[in-house]
Design goal:
The protein is 36% helix and 23% strand. The protein has 179 residues and is an alpha+beta fold. The protein is elongated and about 70 Å long.
Length: 179
């Protein structure tokens, strides 16, 4: 099993309501409903995200022992993105413009881009990111070890879809008052 991250920035969230006990199968079942699904062979999907465990980055299993870390629960989610490189788009655009002997119109550029995405995106490997979170169910507090807006939004969405509980983001002052 990989080690838990010991440094870096984090974002704190709290919630109101009842969360399933992290030591219970209902908790892992909620994670499994929004587990990660790969997009390696997909042509249309450019982003995929979902829950995984530190021991299983595929999202196929959620054993309780993989989530336990004293004194909380170790959550991890995975984000895969497929992006067609801009250089490839520019290269194909240049070739098409040279073949036609003129610049492509906006509509033609869009059609070319859509065609390239359909043809080349299935061959593109996704970039992968794993983001950890430490959940303290007794305090109704979760620390997400990422500060980017995209990662925070994905975590909030996954948490809500898994447990039907909206998260409240805490700044350092309100976190100190809360704890």
């Amino acid at each position: 099993m990989t080690a838990f991250r010991r440094s870096g920035s984090f974002t704190a969230f709290t919630w109101q309501g009842r969360l399933p006990d992290p030591q219970d199968e209902a908790f892992t079942a909620a994670l499994a409903k929004r587990r990660f699904r790969t997009i390696e062979n997909a042509a249309s999907e450019e982003v995929s995200f979902g829950w995984v465990t530190p021991a299983d980055p595929t999202g196929d299993s959620f054993p309780l022992e993989d989530l336990e870390i004293d004194p909380g629960t170790w959550l991890r989610f995975r984000i895969d993105k497929k992006v067609l490189p801009k250089k490839w788009l520019q290269h194909h655009r240049d070739v098409a413009e040279k073949a036609r002997g003129r610049r492509l119109s906006v509509r033609e550029r869009k059609e070319l881009r859509d065609d390239l995405i359909e043809k080349l995106l299935p061959r593109q490997l996704p970039t992968t990111a794993h983001i950890d979170a430490l959940l303290f169910a007794d305090r109704q507090l979760v620390l997400v070890f990422a500060s980017s807006k995209g990662a925070r939004e994905i975590f909030e969405k996954l948490f809500f879809e898994s447990f039907a509980l909206p998260l409240d983001r805490r700044d350092p002052y309100s976190l100190a008052v809360y704890c």
